[in-house]
Specification:
The complex is a heterodimer. In chain A, 0% of the residues lie in helices and 53% in strands. By secondary structure, chain A is mostly beta strands. By secondary structure, chain B is mostly beta strands. In chain B, the strands form two sheets. In chain B, strands 1, 3, 4, 7, 8 and 9 form a six-stranded mixed sheet that branches. A three-stranded antiparallel sheet of chain B has the order 2-6-5, with no helix packed on it. In chain B, strand 5 and strand 6 form a beta hairpin. The chains are: A mainly beta, B mainly beta. Chains A and B meet through strand 5, strand 9 and strand 10 of A and strand 7 and strand 8 of B.
Chain lengths: 119, 110
């Protein structure tokens, strides 16, 4: 059974960089059959796709966040990570990591982690 | 990219059928059969219900079905049950090699 688990600071100061890691078990991030995505959800609001990474190193990002986002894969640790720079209160949200099939759906999700941007 | 448009809320009585629409553009829903649907209960992660417009993953009830016409995709829940009360989101692949989610629909079982 594939499981994903997000980890990282729950509180980040404005203008700093948000950093999260997703650890995958029961599956391999080096598999060429999947992308690995980050998705976020502000409290009481909808889902927003942030971006994805592939084993080849290729990445795709939401145009609205592209200038601030970096997603990378560490296949040796079976993890992938999210870095979002210059954060503001608007970046406060539950952040989910998810496995992204080549058919472009998200079949496994982490439980989500709340990140609050506040001084 | 703009979020796909869904009705804010849909309701129905137990046993009834309801349909949730998801309207996009010719750059996303209209161009690809890569529309997926997710169910999200409060405080929980979303769960994949439908992929590739109308396919159900193993373990998902056949009461959930999907379709698409032009720039609009739809999710139908038949034989509505109390446990179906949740938020539902559509998602589409786009011509910019990105993904875009719908605005979300709250389903209430009366």
């Amino acid at each position: 059974q594939v499981q994903l688990q997000e980890s990282g600071p729950g509180l980040v100061k404005p203008s700093q960089t948000l950093s999260l890691t997703c650890t995958v078990s029961g599956g391999s991030t080096s598999s060429g059959s999947y992308y690995w995505s980050w998705i976020r959800q502000p409290a009481g609001k909808g889902l927003e796709w942030i971006g994805r990474s592939y084993t080849s190193g290729s990445t795709n990002y939401n145009p609205s966040l592209k200038s601030r986002v970096t997603i990378s894969l560490d296949t040796s640790k079976n993890q992938f990570s999210l870095k979002l720079s210059s954060v503001t209160a608007a970046d406060t949200a539950v952040y989910y990591c998810a496995r992204n099939t080549l058919r472009f759906s998200f079949d496994y999700w982490g439980q989500g982690t709340l990140v609050t941007v506040s001084s | 990219q703009s979020a796909l448009t869904q009705p804010a809320s849909v309701s129905g009585s137990p046993g009834q059928s309801i349909t949730i629409s998801c309207t996009g553009t010719s750059s996303d829903v209209g161009s690809y059969n890569y529309v997926s649907w997710y169910q999200q209960h409060p405080g929980k992660a979303p769960k994949l219900l439908i992929y590739d417009v109308s396919n159900r993953p193993s373990g998902v009830s056949n009461r959930f079905s999907g379709s698409k016409s032009g720039n609009t995709a739809s999710l139908t829940i038949s034989g509505l049950q109390a446990e179906d009360e949740a938020d539902y989101y559509c998602c589409s692949y786009t011509s910019s090699t990105t993904h875009v989610f719908g605005t979300g629909t709250k389903v209430t079982v009366l």
